Amino acid sequence: MTAEYVNYATGEPVVDTKAPSGPVNERWDKRRFEAKLVNPANRRKHTVIVVGTGLAGGSAGATLAEQGYHVVQFCYQDSPRRAHSIAAQGGINAAKNYRNDGDSIHRLFYDTVKGGDFRARESNVHRLAQISVEIIDQCVAQGVPFAREYGGLLDTRSFGGVQVSRTFYARGQTGQQLLLGAYQALSRQIAAGNIEMHPRTEMLDLIVVDGRARGIVARDLITGKIDTYFADAVVLASGGYGNVFYLSTNAMNSNATAVWRAHRRGAYFANPCFTQIHPTCIPRTGDHQSKLTLMSESLRNDGRIWVPKARGDDRPANKIPEDERDYYLERIYPSFGNLVPRDIASRAAKNVCDEGRGVGPGGQGVYLDFADAIKRMGRGAVEAKYGNLFDMYQRITDEDPYEVPMRIYPAVHYTMGGLWVDYDLQTTIPGLFAIGEANFSDHGANRLGASALMQGLADGYFVLPATINDYLARNPHHEAVTDEHPAVQEVLAETEDRLNLLLSVDGDRTPDSFHREVGELMWEFCGMARTDSGLRKALERIPQIREEFWRRIKVPGTGEEFNQSLEKANRVVDYLELAELMCLDALHRSESCGGHFREESQTPDGEAARRDEEFAYAAAWEFTETGAAPVLHKEDLVFEYVHPTQRSYA
Amino acid sequence: MARTVWDSTVGKKTVMAVSGLIMLLYLVTHMIGNLKIYFGAGEFNAYGHWLRTVGEPFMHYEWTLWLIRVVLVVAVVAHAVSAFQLSRRDIKARPSKYVHKKPRASYATRTMRWGGIILGLFIVWHVLDLTTGTVHSGGFQEGHPYQNIVDTFSTWYGNAIYIVAMLALGLHIRHGFWSAAQTLGAGSRTRDRALKTVANVLALLLTAGFTAVPVGVMTGVVS
Amino acid sequence: MKLTLRVWRQKNADADGAMSTYEVDGISSDMSFLEMLDTLNEELILKGEDPVAFDHDCREGICGACSLVINGDAHGPERTTTCQLHMRSFKDGDTIDIEPWRASAFPVIKDLVVDRSAFDRIIQAGGYITAPTGAAPEAHATPVPKPDADFAFEHAECIGCGACVAACPNGAAMLFTSAKINHLNVLPQGAPERETRVLDMVAQMDDEGFGGCTLTGECATACPKGIPLMSITGMNKEWLRATRKVKR
């Protein structure tokens, strides 16, 4: 640890100047009315770059193009349809109250603020809850085949952290169906010539001219050609950074380069330590493991989580009698039982495993048992509800979950932190917007199940298309930027130098080996439970790994061809910097909240203890230079409607 | 509309399905007619003569027969041209083969193309043999189909060609009938078994029915 | 376990390709097939050789990126995606042939990576419902009978991996195209564009150079999501209906 890195300075507070005041339920209307509009005839003269084609990027690209803007869109995948939103399983929340079970926009707002452990912005969350109902309408109109009841109306189910049934779903493939809806809307606009789509093209840097985001540098992954693309505004919808941990439920190629490069160019990075560890993933089997697979949280609706009461009990699950089992979630949290929020369920699993009561190889697992559900509903009903998940589990583990209980263990799943944005979803760089998981705005310190899809689509379909108008209307006549501009030349040269350096080191370690090393370090010290000493250890180690990386990295081939090792190595460069900021953020936030659990800050019964008087703020970090201390800017969080209490799910 | 159909792979398959079904319908009646050979030369030759007078007095002598012949020629040509164009397209769509080869698809499916060519050649021979008599083995007599047939099936190669072609026909119909149903959108999950059964029964009946004639001659039942 | 791999290596789209042989050792039966290839690639990088390029992303069987023909079967011996295939399906000492999807509409980019953008263009031709953001009626305004919703879902499950094309002896994309047509055409929301959708998508499919269907059923056998062969029948029916209804 370079001593200066942890000695960060605290700068001016960062203030969300766009959020209107007044009653929370009127703010969105007010903002939309106050926002300037661009004349429809003038929209086609504006180019907007969108990076990413997941739920947020796909829906934003399609909607902006429908409005008449010229959209230039990028994804590293071979098709926009493969963005990792596609892997979301469980569902999407909406305050439709079709069940008449007491749901409302206000309750969704309340649940989300509370679920986020009071570290989210009230005005953003309320807007999200308001828009949630429109999302369902929009998706149904697009032909998203949500689950329906025999009467032909939409079915819903319940999810962790709430007591109403407001989650709309399409079997275990809700993310896929919603993404395909957005992809199809995007495809319609591509065919209409309103979107210029660049698949297999990865953003490598942001172009900032005169303090405004004016374009990106991107590499064609097939030819290796590095090119510049210019626009009047840039939207990052590049997802989260969970892959810093190497093993996560993120896609193999999901990466942090777009957001990290934007951060280096001046965008503040907020709450980087807020990562979500999902409680129901399939445990790892060995060192060869390349990624982890999630089992939808919806399984907790009917499955019961338990471990043996005695430590070191290695009898097969079926041989352990009922009275020797500890259904620990039902025991500790009787009113929410197996449906407590993710952070709580994950930590509880870690605790029982740390006690030596974990099951499976290495004791890193707990049982998720469907025996009672099968007895109650019959195997057919269980199959209809969860069939594809059970099949997936069986394929991966070679165990039949209808016969023996599933084994699950927490894994990194989602990152609540991200680029700091105001109410308009604009970062601290004018003209640079961040939407979906790439921003930090709506989930606070913990995201509730089925809320990521809601936020991605809310941002892309409804929020950004309304707020970006204001920016474009107020900044109508940008001079055209060309490659000759010194700022552009500088970014281009930096990018090329970085790739050339990666190719020229010719060391003796692969990009993957460094990724794995930093990932394991992060999991150990910046994972489910964090301590001051552990984080300091990680902060000492990361610069060493970084130094070693630039000395020993080996990337075969050239930059002028399809080169997956080069892609990987360049992503690892950014993980090695971002990991450091995550640890620093975790170190500075000495309270526990949501997904961030500091062992020093817990209640007598082991729950996360928030310290609102000190930490009721979002921590937005400003980049200075690699390895040097960033500057902390605090955004104070004001709770006018949902008053912070210690969360209780007991 | 016609352009849309002919330019499309789905459209060409439709042409194949419709022309195939027309030929199938013809084959069923042809086979039933053939079986009359078991009732002796008199009845069989009279049936041959009747074919030329069908529709009289509204139709002139042989008009109906020629009408059928025209429809059949159109069907055969349409079937063959579509098949040829589709096959060429299919081969172009898959220019390089997998290095690791494995036996694929059912026998009938794989033999559709070769079976089709065999049947095409057979039709030419069959017409030259028993309609025009050009390549007939004995003394071909116009208006005496019974004797002509007995002559043809008194040679080893007449029997061989015919029986091989009828086996090819069975296989062709077995996959072709079911395929045509799918192409025309008549298949469904609930109907699939029934369609496959009908295809098998039709294939079996036609092969058996047609083969019954040379078998009759060979065994001396027909002479 | 110890395995012999014969892998298709091709430097780029214009180069000629050939099978190269590699030995890998210490493979665990719990590994996924792609983790086995990761192991090979780590060794190749350290030896200074070009690692084997292959498409992959989610490794959960849903993104549709992975696309290997293993011993002549698209996605290998089990009915799943390549990423969900595990090494327990093989045994010690096996020789495994690994090839890219082969179809003229899917040109090879490098090694085992092919260009599947033709699928995107088929969707662009009509695989959507025109519903601009903000124009949607209340979700419950139009009930959809459960059997129709289920039918739509079964076809919407397609992940666009292209295994159907890879397995088809004619390189046909009928199963992919029909899955989307069946998904959207059965829904009331899809009805206004029902005819143009099927005509335009089939025309685009032909323009891309895919072959025609001879109903061998190879596509449905290879499909990791179990899209039924009958899906193609449904598309044919829709297409014929559309040619009758639309005057062009």
Question: What does the model show?
Answer:
The complex is a heterotrimer of chains A (650), B (223) and C (248). By secondary structure, chain A is α+β, with helices and mostly antiparallel strands. Chain A contains 18 helices and 21 strands. With 223 residues, chain B is mainly α. Chain B starts with a helix and ends with a helix. The model of chain C has no long low-confidence stretch (mean pLDDT 96). In chain C, 34% of the residues lie in helices and 12% in strands. Chain C has 248 residues and is of the alpha+beta class. In chain C, the strands form two sheets. Chain C has a five-stranded mixed β-sheet with strand order 2-1-5-3-4. At the A-C interface, helix 4, helix 6, helix 7, helix 12 and helix 13 of A face helix 1, helix 2 and helix 3 of C. Chain B: Keywords: Membrane, Transmembrane, Transmembrane helix. Chain B: This is Succinate dehydrogenase.
In short:
Chain A is of the alpha+beta class and 650 residues long. Chain A has helices at 3-6, 27-34, 40-43, 55-67, 105-115, 122-142, 174-191, 257-264, 328-332, 342-354, 371-377, 379-397, 452-474, 486-505, 511-525, 532-552, 564-588, 612-615, and strands spanning 9-10, 47-51, 70-74, 92-93, 156-157, 167-168, 195-198, 201-209, 212-220, 226-230, 233-236, 269-270, 275-281, 304-308, 325-326, 366-369, 406-415, 418-419, 432-434, 617-622, 631-636.
